[in-house]
Amino acid sequence: MTLGLIRRELVRHARAGGLDEVAVFNFVLAVNEITTNAVRHGGGRGRIQLWREGSALWCQVKDEGPGITSERLDETLRRKAGHIGGHGIWLARQICAGLHIETTAGKGTRVLITCELPPGKQ
């Protein structure tokens, strides 16, 4: 599946979950950043799983790449303005309800993204 097809499926899934258009955009943007990282840095491919549980939409992205350095996992790290690339994890953390990363050097990375559903859609 291509990243474009993944984005379209994310939109469908997020709308079906009851997110408004701003929340759909943010969810898709965050997941796109993480899936792009999986392809670019995680060996060229990964696995994605989407589901709804409780009051949230969930997305899990896994790859079998070299893992993420501690510098990139630093929650306060933000690249300087004008720098190309390296903003994906930081950005996803800013626009999602939750972002959890498990990474092991040489054994891959698992990222779990959560997006809260609006009241009345839970």
Characteristic key phrases:
four-stranded antiparallel sheet
Molecular structure report:
This protein is α+β, with helices and mostly antiparallel strands. It contains 4 helices and 4 strands; from the N terminus they run H-H-E-E-H-H-E-E. Strands 1-2-4-3 form a 4-stranded antiparallel sheet, covered by helices on one side. Helix 2 runs antiparallel to helix 4. The longest helix has 21 residues. The chain is globular, with a radius of gyration of 14 Å. The mean pLDDT is 87.
In short, what is this structure?
With about 120 residues, the chain is of the alpha+beta class.
Query: Ranges with pLDDT <50 over ≥5 residues?
Result: none
Structural class: alpha+beta
How are the strands of the largest sheet arranged?
Answer: 1-2-4-3
Oligomer state equals single chain
From the N-terminal CA to the C-terminal CA, the straight-line distance is 29 Å
Alpha-carbon Rg, integer: 14 Å
Largest sheet: 4 strands, antiparallel
Write down how many β-strands occur, each being a DSSP E stretch of 2 or more residues.
Answer: 4
Shape: globular
Q: Averaged pLDDT, please?
A: 87
